[in-house]
Amino acid sequence: MEKKQFQAESKRLLEMMINSIYTQKEIFLRELISNSSDAIDKIYYKALTDDKLVFDKDNYYIQVIPDKTNRTLTIRDTGIGMTEEDLENNLGIIAKSGSLAFKKENEAKDGHNIIGQFGVGFYSAFMVADVVTVISKSLETGRAYKWESTGADGYTIEPSEKESVGTEIVLKIKDNTEDESYDEYLEEYRLRSIIKKYSDFIRYPIKMEISGRRPKEGSEGEYEDYREEQHVNSMVPIWRKNKKELTTEDYENFYAEKHYGFDKPLKHIHVSADGAVVYQAILFIPENSPFDYYSKEYEKGLELYANGVLIMNKCADLLPDYFGFVKGMVDSESLSLNISREMLQHDRQLKLIAKNIESKIKSQLLSMVKDERDKYEQFFKAFGRQIKFGVYNDYGMHKDTLQDLLLFTSSKEKKLVTLDDYVSRMPEDQKYIYYATGESNERIEKLPQTELVADKGYEILYFTDDIDEFAIKVLMKYKDKEFKSVSSSDLGLEADESQKEADAENNEHKELFEQMTSLLDGKVTGVKASKRLKSHPVCLSTEGDVSIEMEKILNAMPS
Ligand code: ADP
Ligand code: MG
């Protein structure tokens, strides 16, 4: 039998790939299963136009068979199989994808579920195997061939025997080395969990014989050993199901299964977008903030699937920082992936999806503000600080998105209110949105400066979080109403008359005030008569834009 050689470039490419494209060895199984799924898909698409071909779902599946004694792992499918030429072209020429060609030919029909496109995934088998043997019987010719290779130094093809149409790939698993053990790829439980992780939503059954021990039915305290063929993948992902068929519990179970958090989600958003960009997503707003949320350790991101196959665990680009608390996943068929399918090629699609997702999250939060205020307050307790940072960061670029998501305690009934709540009940003569800063609501209430504003019957927002005033400075206005600190020198409410009186007093007692100023040198910049005090003899106030609280924070900042 003549041994054929890989072309020189192919040889290098293979070595390069085996050693560098993939970050994890375990993905070889994802690649082989994806190929099997593609092969079954091809029969499915053929059956759509070929009357002689009946697609009976029960006959199409994928089997994963570890054999510890012979140290082999077999992946078997009942797909379309490969002819001698297919074996030569698709497995002998690296970076040649029969699946991509198929997809192109069948563009008119909906071949869009097919996963393969780069023609390299198959070779990932060499990350864990010394020898790869492919026995395939083609639907087209009904003949079987065997392809075999030990990696970089070529392959052989010869006629073979195989009962049914389809492909069987036998991996001779590598021996353990000093640094690396390959035994795990022969362990049922390990294989099962790899399948669950990457291939749970492959649309054909993935079957495995599993041994175990379980309580015996109908008898107490007794156990039995079993060995049975199990159906490992769940096939239809929850996000492809109809929202109407799903209960809150289904979503909560998914949240727990995926380990998105130990809490329960406060809210879920199920998106099925069919417009300019096609994707499905399930997003969760968690109930509690993770312990590391406000630290550098926290990594935002959503799981990203391409056509039901997991591509990335945490795709950060899908979420803006200010919605970094959102958990969940996105599945899209319109992503262009890079060769390892671990990253995206172009981010145009991704950007569109991200924009879309952002607006879904925003409108969900807004609808909670409107219709489920209790729930929203709970959310705001956990993530309100994030929203305020969001307003403040990037020079307020996102303030329009976020301003209606802010809550502050108001002097009225000491309840949390939105800026819209506040503005919509402002009396007509009120010019500004008033706020007071302090360590706590109690402290703020004792501030002499609040008296005058409160006396007018105006509401005051209590800023107790150090970021509050910074965020508001970035906003500047809300619905054309400027923000005004109760301790600013111009409150916009003294009548002209009283200001004149104060000016007169300042003139009259000029020397006294000058003496007081010099006594308090370095502590204050001036002492003045004021008409703003009611029950307090004296108060501190600031000139210009910066409040006392902000000054404190600014002074405390390292410069
Ligand atoms: P890709 O899947 O990106 O096309 P692969 O290297 O994974 O690249 O596979 C190369 C080609 O080999 C596929 O496009 C397909 O034509 C063929 N192939 C691989 N595995 C199978 C299989 N189990 N059944 C039928 N054809 C297969
Ligand atoms: Mg492939």
Automatic annotation (TrEMBL):
Q: Cross-referenced Pfam families, in alphabetical order?
A: HATPase_c_3, HSP90
**What are the start and end residues of every segment in region (A)?**
1-341
Q: What subcellular locations does the record give? A: Cytoplasm
> Which parts of the chain span the membrane according to its record?
none
Q: Name one GO cellular component term.
A: cytoplasm
Any GO MF annotation of the entry: unfolded protein binding
What top-level branch of life does the organism fall under? Bacteria
Keywords attached to this entry: ATP-binding, Chaperone, Cytoplasm, Nucleotide-binding, Stress response
Residues binding ATP: 31, 35, 77, 82, 90, 96-98, 117-122, 167, 341
Q: What family, per the record?
A: Belongs to the heat shock protein 90 family.
Q: Which HAMAP family match?
A: HSP90
Q: How does it assemble?
A: Homodimer.
Q: What does this protein do?
A: Molecular chaperone. Has ATPase activity.
The family database entries (NCBIfam families) matched by this protein are listed as: PRK05218.1
Protein name, as recorded: Chaperone protein HtpG
Lineage of producing organism: Bacteria, Bacillati, Bacillota, Bacilli, Bacillales
Identify the coding gene. htpG
